[in-house]
Specification:
Oligomer: single chain
Protein name: ABC-type metal ion transport system, periplasmic component/surface adhesin
Region (Disordered): 120-150
Biased composition (Basic and acidic residues): 124-150
CATH superfamily of the largest domain: Nitrogenase molybdenum iron protein domain
Strand order of the largest sheet: 2-1-3-4
CATH topology of the largest domain: Rossmann fold
Keywords: Metal-binding, Signal, Transport
Main location: other
CATH architecture of the largest domain: 3-Layer(aba) Sandwich
CATH class of the largest domain: Alpha Beta
Number of helices: 12
Number of domains: 2
């Protein structure tokens, strides 16, 4: 993959850049394949790029706009180079649900087919950057204005959704490169089999620890926690403040400190959004002997495989609760 963490260029209208790029590609009947015949795919983050790579194998060349773990998809500002990547793509893949709103804006002027992950969760077309209010996954009281029917846009932690994305990718890639359709279907089947193994591992966690209490520094891995039948005891005010990047109320911070020092069986930390408030929670948990499980929003540096990345996080959660 290429390093495509780019910022917008001051004084340049992204919409104007897009219009020029689309015009330049207009005579190509869609974006052209690479010189070696591989399908050109652009994904919003390296999480979905890794799923594309698993399904497409040697027949795709996939680029992710966000690869750097320090880049935040919620606030990412796309630039001219990002627009160029999207304009030359044959297939576009993004999360949706308000998570990576920069990407559908880039995709507006492209005729390339799209795969939007939240579509696999909600069973209806993704509505661009529009927000919808829904209830949170069971056991989580934080209200979030984006996402699918469960109200949380972090659907790459929802394993059946990821399997659905793989199947959809196989179908789209098969349309673009019909002679390799069977390869894509077989790759998706192999990927889904690995997902099923992860689901089985999560079910094992549920069998051993259903009802165990966890506190999270941010509502990131809620689908995983819900599937493991764990109870999220994070105070609403704490989760809301961290996710919206506002100051954590003193009372919520104190309550969280009390929970991780006694009531919680484990603390789940998003290492990509560490703040003084969350680090205090982690420090208190470790002082109290409460296990801390690290999770991330994108694949960490050095990892390119979704299954191994998610499997490591499931293993870490299981190990923490087994202690």
């Amino acid at each position: 993959m290429h390093d495509t963490r780019r910022r917008s260029v001051a004084g340049v209208s992204l919409s104007a850049v897009l219009a020029v790029l689309v015009a330049a590609c207009g005579g190509q009947d869609g974006a052209a394949q690479s010189e070696d015949g591989r399908i050109q795919v652009v994904a919003s983050t390296n999480v979905w790029a890794s799923v594309v790579a698993a399904v497409g194998g040697e027949h795709v060349e996939v680029t992710s706009i966000i690869e750097d773990p320090s880049a935040d998809p919620h606030s990412y500002q796309a630039g001219a180079a990002d627009a160029a990547e999207v304009a030359s793509a044959e297939l576009l893949v993004w999360n949706g649900g308000g998570y990576d709103d920069f990407f559908p804006q880039l995709a507006e002027n492209s005729d390339a087919p799209t795969v939007v992950a939240v579509d696999q969760a909600q069973g209806r077309p993704e509505e661009g950057a529009e927000a919808h209010e829904h209830a949170e996954p069971e056991g989580h009281g934080h209200s979030h204005e984006h996402g699918h029917e469960h109200g949380n846009e972090h659907v790459w932690y929802d394993l059946p959704v990821v399997a659905g994305v793989a199947d959809r990718l196989a179908a789209e890639l098969g349309e673009l490169l019909p002679q390799q359709k069977k390869v894509f279907e077989d790759n998706a089947a192999d990927f889904t089999e690995s997902i099923d193994e992860l689901v089985h591992e999560v079910e094992g966690v549920a069998e051993r620890h259903a009802g165990a209490k966890v506190a999270a520094t941010e509502p990131l891995a809620q689908y995983l926690l819900s599937a493991a039948e764990l109870e999220d005891i994070t105070p609403h005010e704490f989760a809301s403040a961290v996710e919206n990047e506002t100051d954590v109320p003193v009372a919520a911070q104190q309550r969280m400190l009390e929970l991780v020092s006694g009531e919680a069986d484990a603390v789940v930390r998003n290492t990509q959004t560490a703040t003084p408030a969350t680090e205090k929670i982690v420090e208190a948990a470790r002082e109290a002997g409460t296990p801390v499980v690290d999770v991330t929003e994108t694949l960490p540096e050095g990892r390119s495989d979704y299954i191994s990345w998610m499997g490591a996080q499931v293993d870490a959660l299981a190990k923490a609760l087994d202690e």
